[in-house]
């Protein structure tokens, strides 16, 4: 597990997969990065996955007392995180915190898709297809 100190405190993160395009997997409220473990395994060695645990309720390390944990503040922390790790060519994937009867709403680079909650393989297929299309 890696960690990086940002203006609001320390963010921990996992790196998985292998070489290839970088995908940063972001979780929603009251979750942590472990949400993505099956997706990282499914993507295999062709994609480098970076999974931070954001200060959205599932984090284990307290943030600074004056940290801005509003939606905009956390978005700024994500930008700061990418900059700290020198990540400038990435695909951001966000799992929405809403539990919908049909599944979960997933955003991949401004494209929203509803995927079954119990099917990480569906998300793997979606990310793989997006990366293939982006590379073409």
Could you characterize what this model shows?
By secondary structure, the chain is α/β, with parallel strands linked by helices. The protein has one domain (2-135): Rossmann fold (3-Layer(aba) Sandwich). The chain is built from 3 helices and 7 strands, in the order E-E-E-H-E-H-E-E-E-H. The chain has helices spanning 37-43, 71-84, 120-135, and strands at 2-6, 9-17, 22-26, 48-53, 90-100, 103-108, 111-115. A 7-stranded mixed β-sheet has the order 1-2-4-3-5-6-7. Strand 3, helix 1 (37-43) and strand 4 (48-53) form a beta-alpha-beta unit. Helix 1 (37-43) crosses helix 3. The chain is globular and about 45 Å long. It starts with a strand and ends with a helix.
Tell me briefly what this model is:
This protein is an alpha/beta fold and 136 residues long.
**Text of the CATH class:** Alpha Beta
Tally of domains: 1
Residues in β-strands, percent? 25-35%
Strand order of the largest sheet: 1-2-4-3-5-6-7
